[in-house]
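Students often ask why we bother encoding 3D structure as a string. The short answer is that it lets us treat folding as translation between two languages. Here is a chain of 570 residues written in the first language.
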Amino acid sequence: MRSRLVLRARVLSVFFIFAALLLIARLYFVQVVHGEEYRQRAAGQYVASAPDTEGRSDIFFSTKDGDLVAAAVMQTGWRIAIEPDAITDPEAAYTRLAEYVTLDKDRFLKAAAKKGDPYEEVAFRIPSEVGSKLRSEKMPGVLLVPDQWRAYPGGQLAAHTVGFVGYQGDKKVGVYGLEKAWQRTLAKESSGLAVNPFAEVFASIGSALSSDPSGEKGDIITTIEPAVQQKLEDTLERVRTSYSTKVAGGIVMDPASGAIVAIALRPAFDPNTYNTVDDVSVFTNALVENIYEMGSIIKPLTMAAGIDTGVVSATTMYEDRGCIEKSDKRICNYDGKARGRVSMQEVLNQSLNTGVSFVVDKMGHNIFGNYMHAFGLGDKTGIDLPNEATGIVHSIEGGSDVDYASASFGQGIGTSAIATTRALSALANGGTLPDPHVVKAVKLESGVTRAIPSEPGPRVLKAESAEEVTRMLVEVFDTALLKGELKQEHYSIAAKTGTAQIAIPGGGGYYEDRFLHSFFGYLPAHEAKYIVFLFAVEPRGAEFASATLARPFLDIAKYLINYFDIPPDR
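And here it is in the second language, the structure alphabet:
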């Protein structure tokens, strides 16, 4: 008898413990996970909810110390609506409301004149404190409607990456940047408050155990470091204003992991007021969505391929005649001058077109083409941003001699900035391509934060080949670039400039007076923490990238050294 009582007591204890755990779990979801939504629903009992106030998860930047900084959040407040039949004196009602909020008088008076209409909205995005004051006024015919909207606390900061929410038909969705690429993760289900507590608990467990949380609901945490992002944007703005460029852009990335700590363009926009922008092309992330002929920053890749195949080394000599004939067309160095017998180191030091063409001839067209494809110049990187462009490298797929010669110094092939940065990262990363990305984790609705898996790309060069080209690029930075003016006593930096002619649309050759300037560098050169890519479209007042981008690059490099406390390597 006693044993039966003990058994019953144990069964009841287990039942009550299980019930208590379920109740605690449910309270957690009600008060913590969905607390804000319930508060809004309670507030919404004053009047009917507005039709397009669906919730949305947040986007965060991450500081070097691991703190999260809001990039995109939902803000709550009120809309103001009126009942026209209850407004007896529209002028007086307008005057009284205008003491609290900014109103369009014509719109208000037209709305107040719609007799028989029970509901007309006249103001939006009213802060909660202002709504509280208006509610205490108890103005006849004035209704407060709970509202929420997407806000971007950083304004223009990383606007091209974050993107914004806009209308697609009659529904609000992400239309650019992370807001678009991560729409499935960020969009909250409108029926989220009616989920069965048992299903919710077990669904959350499933999300937490998932190997890849990118398909789950929650906040996204980016690799963007806000201080570095601001530094990059300020630097690009100076480049744009100093040289009247059409576009200036840049990327700062960890060449090993592919984590992008800053990515920016100028001109930019404020996603809080995107509807005031006249030229919608400013919304395009040209670093990801556009392709360009990058010019001489491709030369280190050509040299790396030659070194990797063993046909040249840094000391290999060739006879530079200034110009060569390829497919009955003339290819010359940037100044048309001959240097005589020079080494491959001098090819990079002096950026000699004939020198990298010599490297291609030594290794053969097919092998060169295979390396360019291996570097990914004709592919998408798979970056977690929308509308990534695919490079155009058809000229190295059975092209003529002149096509291969041109491709060796970055003309005649088009690549995106992010694909170029990834390819060049192989030089800084021991010959392996990284996986470029801007999102590192998702904070699930359960409260669990899950990292996004990132795998290294393929090996495209032998480690010793990448090291040899790195050594050559350090020599370029220390002695050749601006005659060694930028050399750093305690830090090795590998770098190269690029100046490319811009093609005339429709295949009409190249403009004589329009150029794309580019620059890349990584530091410290032999154990690189960061690679920096910069470009400027049609700068004015300077012919070569060494004039427009070399000092801005060094400004960013010094900032990275100091901000991240990178130890000296020499």
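Translate back mentally: The chain has three domains: 1-33, 35-194, 239-269+287-563. Keep this in mind for the problem set.
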